[in-house]
Amino acid sequence: MRRLILRLMAACLLTAAVPVGMAVAAGPLAASATVCGDQYLLALADPGQIAALSPQAADPWLSLMAGEAVSFRRVRPSAEAYLSLGVGVVLANGWSDHKTLELLERFGVRVVRIPLVERFEDIEAVTATVAEALGHPERGAALNGAVRRRLAAVRVENAGAGRPALYLRPGGGSAAAGTFVDEVMTAAGLTNRATAEGRSGWTGYDLERFVLNPPELLVTSFFESPDRSLRRAFGEHPAFLRRASTTPTVAVPGKSWVCSGWFLIEAAEALAGGLRRLPPSSSPDRGP
Predict the structure, then answer these.
(1) Domains in the chain, start-ordered, CATH in brackets?
(2) Given this model, what pLDDT does residue 51 score?
(3) If both were cysteines, with which of 35, 52, 196, 254 could 56 make a disulfide (CB 3.0 to 4.6 Å apart)?
């Protein structure tokens, strides 16, 4: 530990080598350790404030703002890397390495741990906290106002019109009451089948149940991702593919709700847009 502390102290001394252009931003230099933090940093900070993003920031399957991220440095999260860049703020989350975050705080870095919240109202509070930490509270207020207006339009449209729908990921994972997926589905006017069945939280479906009692409508995400580390046995099974091919489906880009944040409005609008393009609801015989 003593050796690590000495390395970190040396990293702090290297701060003087950070390009001068980074120091002229109105707020503190900042870095993000997670893809969710990337979206906040890119949306709220001055370009000159952004010292580093997460390694996944430019991944178009995971990062909504991947196009903007390509212009910035991306580093593997570590106290040494952040201190050598002279950052004053690091955006992290509950899954970030606790020792790294604690070390950063010992060296005076402000660590903002972005929580996994489930409601749009709670996301507003997170946005305000991050914006304040970056020195731009007015931008947080403006972003919250814009999201609120867009969300109101989605709710008024009520594209789902109460239709029951089931959310699925490639491994059979689903989501019920108490998740941000359920929040988005409800905002778009859908009745979440998992919630209607009395489930809560992040849940799942087995293949037999899906085939014998298929949903009227599917909401899917991550099926097109090239990431082969995802569990896919469910989504690639011939029985699922046959049933899904006859089930109306709306695919929501995974990058729009890879976690909860201001960008969930993108998921809500994508879902509403997909519902808008579906044929009118009908309930034909859906026997096996």
Answers:
(1) 2-114 (3.40.50.1980), 158-276 (3.40.50.1980)
(2) 98
(3) 35
Residue 284's Cβ-side half-sphere holds a number of Cα atoms within 13 Å equal to: 6
Ordered DSSP codes for 230-288: S--TTTT-HHHHHHHHTS-EEEPPGGGSSS-STTHHHHHHHHHHHHHTSPPP-------
Residue type, 77: P
Q: Is the pLDDT of residue 16 over 80?
A: no
pLDDT digits over 76-105, tens only?
A: 999 999 999 999 999 999 888 999 999 999
CB 166 within 8 A of CB 193: yes
Rounded Cα distance between 4 and 8, Å, is 6
Residues 52 and 29: their CA atoms lie apart, in Å, by 9
| CA angle (119 as vertex; 113, 122 as ends), nearest 5 | 50
> Six-digit token pair at 180?
């941000």
- Asked if 17 and 76 touch (Cβ cutoff 8 Å), the reply is no
> Residues 146, 150, 41, CA angle at the centre, nearest 5°?
45
pLDDT band at 144 (very low <50, low <70, confident <90, very high): very high
Q: Which whole-number Å values give the CA distances from 122 to 13, 58, 63, 129, 225, in the listed order? A: 39, 27, 21, 11, 29
Through-space distance between the first and last CA atoms of the chain, rounded to whole angstroms: 62
* 284, pLDDT greater than 60: no
| pLDDT, position 286 | 45
Nearest to 40 by CA among 100, 103, 123, 110: 123
pTM over 0.70, yes/no: yes
Helix (H) or strand (E) holding 32: strand 30-32
Axis crossing angle, helix 264-276 with helix 120-133, rounded to the nearest 10: 140
Whether 239 has a pLDDT exceeding 70, the answer reads yes
Is the model's pLDDT at 13 over the cut of 50?
Answer: no
